TrEMBL record:
Residues 437-528 form the Peptidase M1 alanyl aminopeptidase Ig-like fold domain. Residues 96-179 form the Aminopeptidase N-like N-terminal domain. This is Aminopeptidase N. Residues 533-848 form the Peptidase M1 alanyl aminopeptidase C-terminal domain.
Amino acid sequence: MKDAAPQTVYLKDYAPPAYLVDEVHLTFRLAPTATRVLSRIRFRPNPESSSRDFFLHGESLTPIRAAIDGQEVRPDITEAGLTCAVPDAPFTWEAEVEISPETNTALEGLYMSRGMYCTQCEAEGFRKITWYPDRPDVMAPFTVRIEGDAPVLLSNGNPVGVGEGWAEWHDPWPKPAYLFALVAGDLVAHRDSFVTRSGKTVDLALWVRPGDEGKCAWGMEALKASMRWDEARYGREYDLDVFNIVAVDDFNMGAMENKGLNIFNSAAVLASPDTATDANFERIESIIAHEYFHNWTGNRITCRDWFQLCLKEGLTVFRDQEFTSDMRSAAVKRIEDVRMLRARQFPEDQGPLAHPVRPESYQEINNFYTATVYEKGAEVIGMLKRLVGDAGYSKALDLYFDRHDGQACTIEDWLKVFEDATGRDLSQFKLWYSQAGTPRVSVEESFEGGTYTLTFTQHTPPTPGQEEKRPLVVPIAVGLLSPNGDEVVPTRMLELTEARQSFAFEGLASKPVPSILRDFSAPVVLERAASRAERAFLMAHDTDPFNRWEAARSLARDSLIATIREGAAPDADWLEGLAAMLRDDTLDPAFRAQVLALPTQSELAQALADRGQTPDPDAIHGAVEGLKDAMARHLSDLAPGLYDAMRVTGPYAPDAEQSGKRALGNAMLGLISRRDAGALAARQYAEADNMTLALAALACLLRVGKGSAELAAFHERWKDDRLVMDKWFALQIAEAKPESAVETAARLTEHPAFDWKNPNRFRAVMGALAGHHAGFHRADGAGYALLADWLIRLDPVNPQTAARMMTAFQTWRRYDAGRQAHAKAALERIAATPDLSRDGAEMVGRMLG
Ligand code: ARG
Ligand code: ZN
């Protein structure tokens, strides 16, 4: 059932719940289209609330019966829930409802994935399971009994009993309903155990379908490493006897931190060397960590309401980033995170979907699981840590866990803890949570009488609903280098708080070269008219690895822009600097591979738009191809030797060292195959004994117009492996020429294995199309039209996944009038779809708005 007029929910309207829950008992009698859910819930009036209106959320539930204190009642039932007269004292609510997991294609609530029952309740899925105050500030211990014929029956907490056709679970930790989970199916466990630092043994299990046992080892190692790390770095121990993880094939997002029973998209947990790439392994390690870390930042301390989502997500992303930095290379991780921030969050923050890290209103909360809430939310915590220092940060976090364990909190609570622990006033810093948009920071320098002065100006462009912006607190890490490359002033944290502000460095013998925004100390766009020579100097000499990379990156970007605007030849200094870095064996191969990666075509489009020029996707594509050819020529002497030097001997390991070598080796292969017509790539493909080498080689072959035999062989070998087949689908589109990307995608939608109701498969094809800049933004609008067709088709089946994919259109206004007209027509066609979901309606509405 659809809502006639979507309601907007506002942060300012928050009111505490009228009733609190002391205990929840649930019984599930599982059946694919007629599951019975029996609930027995102890309610009590909330002394903090003046309301005595009893309202329970509930959607798509078939009512069977309801009772209060054993007396049958007849509540008023609407599409959104029920109201009922209740006693003015604690009481027991009992209800029975029927639901149909098998026909639940939205993958929210209780649903089935290839015969297996599973749940996804965040944010508001529990109301599709039974009537309940489905809001995160209502926390209660749950006891769950599952009856069904599946061999494995799982829920949150500790097992309390199991028998033929039933199992019972008890979770003693009060939790909101969004953390509820249930899994039932024919599953096998990959088991291990972990001894916490206070000596408690925890039984660990990763549950998968029979056949996937060989893909579990890495996820389990990552889990144990995460448990160890959270004890060592944050002093946080695990708090149940068991920790279960389940891999599910049909899942809208990456994974979910349900208490004691994390549920993962199989793509985010299953891996073996022959089926998963190094990048997949790294991502799995970080998602396992992320979900595990939520046990404290999210579960033990949760959010008061969904506007506070960044309280758990920003913090937990920040924690998983720290974890990966510790497990691998901190410099490379920072570069990866910034690349991702710029690729995903900056476009959001600079377009029609811009919203604050803590939004103030929404129609559908699922639309706010965004790069802004997650990634910018993590950046805000990184800034906070830079401002208060490491010691201040850990003092504040200790206080946070002490003060708020067991509570549902707000950003105000979070910032108060930092103020109390460090004595700092954070009222201006708090603007980072309420002000949307990417700040622009420009710099001027002067040198006089041994004093070097940097003057910064900050400005945040308007975003929807926020015309005026105030100056933010921007931590700017600056180091100064002498012209011979020595660091004369080590990294200092400048705090920019005014619209315009100067900082002086005294006693310098000569004018230094500044290294500004080291380690990307704030999520801003630094506008700086540094000369090419100066950036080439920083690329060669900066002691801050991030800024070395950044200098190289900005030279590459400017070279591309000069090519696009005036047909300029590639920047020879940059090419020379690149060659020098590649030859420098003291540099981590993973870092060198990062230096080789060019800005994305979408980023270039934005850079052009920022300079007042309408981006032409074909010209951008042409310039990037031209630059890659120039790189291949310029580096042709060193590429083969470096390729050989990066060969890994011995058994495959997805660790930082080996994967760094493969990344650099594959980058060399990319350059070499532009000149040898794919000969080396064909050999690498034939000899590859892991997916990282095989997939990179196949990509190179497709890029040079070869590889059809390999593609067919790949299909034959992997046709029964869904995760590998997702790669097969995506790769062909990613490597298609701009003029054929749409046709390639359209042809693949007719492939019998294009199971479009599976989110991973849908994303493999439509996500790859949306990610193909010149292909998707084709001048005749064919890319927009194809995506719109499929979004309209998916929306009624799975609104969440469709709405997320709609963000592909968020940059539509930066292109030329012809493209804009096509994009607008596509969006209007989506908007005009009868019964468009609330998710979809909100997204297109904001993009057209
Ligand atoms: N809390 C999960 C995570 O970040 C994300 C789940 C969001 N799901 C959703 N349908 N909105 O780990
Ligand atoms: Zn999360």
